[in-house]
Amino acid sequence: MMADLAIRExxxxxxxxxxxxxxxRLAVLPHPASGITAxxxxxxxxxxxxxxxxxxxxxxxxxxxPGVFNDPVPAPIPVQTDxxxxxxFEDIDRLRLVFVDGRFDAAASxxxxxxxxxxxxxxxxxxxxxxxxxxxxxVLEANGQTPVSRPFAALNTxxxxxxxxIRVSGQVARPVHIIHRRRSxxxxxxxxxxxxxxxGSEFTLLETGxxxxxxxxxxxxxxxxxxxxxxxxxKLASHPKVGIGHIFARVAAKAQFKSFELxxxxxxxxHESVVxxxxxxxxxxxxxxxxxxxxxxPFHHDNTVFITHAxxxxxxxxxxxxxxxxxxxxxxxxxxxxxxxxxxxxxxxxSQSLLLDGDSQFLAKPELEIYADDVKCSHGSTTGAIDExxxxxxxxxxxxxxxxxxxxxxxxLAAALDEVENAxxxxxxxxxxxxxxxxxxxxxxTQNPPA
Amino acid sequence: MLEIKNLHAELEDGSKQILNGVNLSVxxxxxxxxxxxxxxxxxxxxxxxxxxxxxxxxxxxAKLEGQDLLDMEPEERAAAGLFLAFQYPVEIxxxxxxxxxxxxxxxxxxxxxxxxxxxxxxxxxxxxKAKTLNIDSDMLKRSVSVGxxxxxxxxxxxxxxxxxxPRMCILDETDSxxxxxxxxxxxxxxxxxxxxxxxxxxxxxxxRLLDHIKPDVVHIMANGQIIxxxxxxxxxxxxxSGYGDLLSEVG
Lengths: 451, 251
Ligand SMILES: Nc1ncnc2c1ncn2[C@@H]1O[C@H](COP(=O)(O)OP(=O)(O)OP(=O)(O)O)[C@@H](O)[C@H]1O
Ligand SMILES: [Mg+2]
Prior knowledge:
The complex is a heterodimer of chains A (451) and B (251). In chain A, 25% of the residues lie in helices and 35% in strands. Chain A has helices spanning 2-14, 16-27, 38-51, 67-70, 122-126, 139-143, 151-159, 388-396, 401-417, 423-447, and strands spanning 95-100, 103-104, 117-121, 164-168, 176-181, 188-197, 202-209, 214-223, 228-236, 242-251, 256-264, 268-277, 283-292, 300-309, 315-324, 329-338, 346-355, 361-370, 376-384. In chain A, β1 and β2 form a beta hairpin. With 451 residues, chain A is of the alpha/beta class. Chain A has one domain (25-386). Chain B is of the alpha/beta class and 251 residues long. Chain B has a single domain, classed as P-loop containing nucleotide triphosphate hydrolases (Rossmann fold), CATH 3.40.50. Helices cover 40% and strands 28% of the residues of chain B. In chain B, α4 crosses α6 and α6 (150-164) packs parallel to α7. Chain B starts with a strand and ends with a helix. The interface between A and B is medium-sized, with 25 and 30 residues. Bound molecules: adenosine-5'-triphosphate (ATP) and magnesium ion. The site of adenosine-5'-triphosphate has 13 residues of chain B, from α1.
């Protein structure tokens, strides 16, 4: 502990420009100092101090103010005592891991065993003499720092107090489900998960629940040849919560990486997906369905995606859909980088917003950077309103305006949900979303009854 | 059943007057046809009756079984028994045909204070009716009208009508784009629904459909008015000599 504090201080003095905000941020940040990841954490700290925390003028943060992530501590958010777990996925067979304010709750969780994979907690692995994750922790995050730096991911690698380490060797049908619960007002949660999918293995990771007043989550996913990962994260929050997340994936030959995010509300959210398609014939799909209104306060949601194609004949898809109302802000920054030699790349990117009123804003920055000559890359971005003809059509069949609007919102989001490969999981998400939308429509009506 | 009196309507922005005093009365159990040149206001009449935004009624009234239609929201008109088969059915990607049908049916039942159908009951009925219209289970599962051919879209409209069992059915050019067999299926679908307490208003350009769905009365619409009303022979007259004579007769 003393040793790394000393390192931190000496470097902070050497670079006073980046120092102030970062020093304050680090000063109150608890972090494990010894264990299997100690070297990786020191490395992350060194990188973080070199890059500093982002400012408003940082090009990569042009549309999203990093202030709430720079603050030493989050603004507290009162805990709702009656808050239950989301019913999403509750009746499917899965391995449940419950985290309360970022701490593992063993009593509420299933035993950490399963066929075809090995699973450990980061905190437990730290104490062992040697663990496979020691070689992997922080590696993909560090690789993902070029060409654009991602300081909060480095901060996470340095400071994460807990996480799940999963090494998959078989075809695992039963998903692992991480369930987050919030029990204290001001929890500042830093979790770092590592997934290693061995050759030909398959795995599904689900995440739901509310994570702290502020969260910083990193997932590193290393997919070896022919491996398949399905990742679904669903955050239905109504709190003025702030959060940043990164998923770093390395996708080897013939492997398939699929990550889907459902995100509802939250004051300031940023989700970065950094995917390195390293082998040939690999596939990477990232998608999100995002909904926000400002009934409970400001809403800002940022998806930032960086996909690098290094292999031949690989396919990547980015499908981002945001439904915005009442002054909500949606951001999409998506880049496809095709490296020299990545021939026959098929890159697709679409980002769309549905503005339910005129006050909301969608800011999109699609980018293509291509250094191979035989590639097919397309991108598009649109902003639109509810289709009045479709709305009338539904109403003319007797569907009330409210319900018809919900159906059209679901219709808009459908292409993002389609990226969830498993039909059962996809339908559960759609049903839950519909319930939530109806619930919200009814609340809106009771709050502002029609004149 | 349907009583339209001196109905005037213009575009909401006031830029164009489209309906210029439509008078039309469809008694219960009857089938009426409306024919008329392109742009005469037939679709507009059907939209104004079903409550589409964008039009302003400036004069006149429209009543369904004594209830003032013009005061109601589109969904209320549907629950009151009005149905419009669209000239151009709308595609709704990502919303399954079955989900949509069930949502619509249950919403109407709820509005009328009836119990919702269980999904088992619903499926049984919808499969049966789809079969008679030659709509396969794949079409039922697909998104509303997405990727349907022109004729499939029209048959899908009739399936909705058969499921919703409206009192007053307006069919706006349901025959256009149909092949001979599909036309027969659609006509059979309509004829199967004919009953003493259900009426039809069939908008069409062709006598062909009226061979299958025998109208009691035929109206000719021009310039936003019904300019002539007669028996089935009026449709034959149009078929043979066009609208020229009719328009000059009145004009
Ligand atoms: N929303 C609108 N904006 C502008 N013009 C309109 C609108 N709706 C209808 N019109 C005009 O009103 C007139 C009547 O149109 P309508 O669609 O009712 O004709 P129709 O009798 O159904 O024709 P068709 O036989 O071609 O289907 C046309 O001149 C049309 O261009
Ligand atoms: Mg028309």
